[in-house]
Design a protein that fits this description.
Strands 6, 7, 8, 9, 10 and 11 form a 6-stranded antiparallel beta sheet that branches. Strands 1-5-4-3-2 form a 5-stranded mixed beta sheet. The radius of gyration is 16 Å and the shape is globular. It starts with a helix and ends with a strand. The protein contains 2 helices and 11 strands, in the order ααβββββββββββ. The longest helix has 10 residues. It has about 160 residues and is mainly beta.
Length: about 160
C-alpha cells in the first residue's frame, strides 16, 4: 500500500484544476519529438483573462521532457494546445520522479507552480515528504518559460488526509 501512494499522486495530478477531464486532454500539436508518450499532465491556471496553460511529462525513449503548453484555440469543445517551452529531464536514479506542483512549493517563488525531480518517501506518520531533490523548475507564465530554480527552499509533501 505505501508504495502505491506516489502512483496515486501521479494519477491525481492528471485531474485538471478546472473544467471537465476530457477537455484537459484536448487536441494538441504533435509531441515535441516523434515517438513520445505523455506520462502525466497538469492543468495550470494562467493570468486572469489570458490563455490557459498546461504542463506535460513526456517519455521519449530513455529521455523525459517537461513541456509547457498554451491553449491556442478550440476544436469544437476541446482545447488545442501548442508547446511554448520544454526541458529535458535526466533522472539520476530510477527511483527519482517528477514531483507535481500540486505537492510542491518554493519559498523563493511562492506564487509560481513548481516541478521538482526527487523522491517522495513515506514518513512514520503516514505522510510523504520529498527527499534527494536534485533539480527543480518553476512555471514562468509571463515569459512562457520553464526556468531551473535552486532546490533550497523547496518543499514537496503529501499528507495522509490528501
Amino acid at each position: 500500500m505505501p508504495r502505491s501512494l506516489p502512483a496515486i499522486a501521479a494519477l491525481l495530478a492528471l485531474i485538471p484544476a478546472a473544467g471537465h477531464a476530457s477537455e484537459a486532454r484536448g487536441k494538441s500539436t504533435p509531441p515535441a519529438a516523434k515517438g513520445c508518450v505523455e506520462v502525466s499532465g497538469t492543468a495550470l491556471s494562467g493570468m486572469t483573462g489570458g490563455p490557459a496553460y498546461s504542463a506535460a511529462e513526456l517519455k521519449c525513449g530513455a529521455r523525459l521532457l517537461l513541456v509547457l503548453q498554451r491553449q491556442t484555440g478550440r476544436d469544437g469543445n476541446l482545447p488545442v494546445w501548442s508547446t511554448v517551452d520544454q526541458v529535458t529531464i535526466v533522472k539520476p536514479s530510477p527511483r527519482h520522479e517528477l514531483l507535481q506542483p500540486v505537492y510542491c512549493s518554493s519559498s523563493r517563488f511562492p506564487q509560481d507552480f513548481v516541478f521538482a525531480l526527487g523522491r517522495m518517501v513515506e514518513q512514520p506518520d503516514g505522510s510523504h515528504r520529498s527527499e534527494n531533490v536534485v533539480k527543480a523548475w518553476r512555471v514562468d507564465i509571463k515569459r512562457e518559460r520553464l526556468p531551473a530554480i535552486p532546490v533550497d527552499g523547496l518543499h514537496c509533501a503529501l499528507d495522509p488526509a490528501d
